[in-house]
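Dear V.,

Thank you for sending over the compound details. I've combined the ligand you provided, adenosine-5'-triphosphate, with the protein sequence from our construct and run the structure prediction for the complex. I'm sharing the raw inputs here so there's no ambiguity about protonation or stereochemistry in the SMILES, which I know was a concern on your side last time.
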Amino acid sequence: MEILGEKDEFADPARVRTLDEIEGDVSFDDVRFAYEKDKPVLHGISFESRPGTVTALVGSSGSGKSTIISLVCAFHKPDSGEVLVDGIDLSTVRLDSYRSQLGVVLQESFLFDGTIKENVMFSHPDATDEDFLSACRIARVDEFAERFPEGYDTIVGERGVKLSGGQRQRLSIARAILASPRILILDEATSSLDSESEAMIQHGLSYLMQGRTTFVIAHRLSTIRRADQILVVEGGLIVERGTHASLYALGGRYYDLYTRQHGLEENLFLAPGEGDTIEEPAK
Ligand SMILES: Nc1ncnc2c1ncn2[C@@H]1O[C@H](COP(=O)(O)OP(=O)(O)OP(=O)(O)O)[C@@H](O)[C@H]1O
Ligand SMILES: [Mg+2]
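Below is the predicted structure of the protein with adenosine-5'-triphosphate bound, written out as structure tokens.
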């Protein structure tokens, strides 16, 4: 009943503008937001992400990283302040014209009960076979798909072949490459993949991030280090911002997170089970 009672997004009279192709400049101007009345989660967030740059969000669990990302996705509207895309207030924009330019790769990628091809083409049903195969090659989907007897027509998901975490992620990267969004959202997996899968995913991701405004909830040092801008979020505020080098030199919150995680990453080489007593990495 709750779902049926939801208002249609298109019925919102404030959404009057249709976006043409965007550059991908995203900025937050003193954004405040609460899921529930009187329980503010974001307390005035301001930043700018220039087109084509990578912004990494780090900070402890519950600090507000996913909430910031969901506002970039326009899943919610700020209670005050503005989220601007190319200088246009996102709350006045028709969502279909925005979302078609937004790509999302999450830790747990959603696969439909269909073929590999259908799952990749879903983001751009009119793509040519050539574009489809090229996306699969860049994301290294070809490496596993072509080994199945049915190839790209192999059914995956509930009733089909089970794919590994790394393979699912490669599939969702291929999907995003095909969609070719201006703004890209990544939520990196926390689980450690073997170094081979890791290398394959990095290849696809690096390609995908080129020339797009990327937001990444980063867990991997390699990603954080190459970010143009790191935002350290704590308690719904940006407490530090800068590059890896400048924040490391600052010796503050980022330095603490970094040194804690760096110790942990070295410990990934422990035998299975040996590292289990170590504190969880800050997400
Ligand atoms: N749908 C929701 N309804 C109510 N409160 C929520 C909701 N989602 C998140 N919150 C609250 O908002 C705060 C920020 O949550 P958020 O998910 O943005 O944190 P995060 O930084 O992404 O954490 P994590 O690293 O664990 O993913 C938390 O206190 C959380 O409990
Ligand atoms: Mg989160």
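A first observation: The two ends are 34 Å apart (CA to CA).

Warm regards,
I. M.
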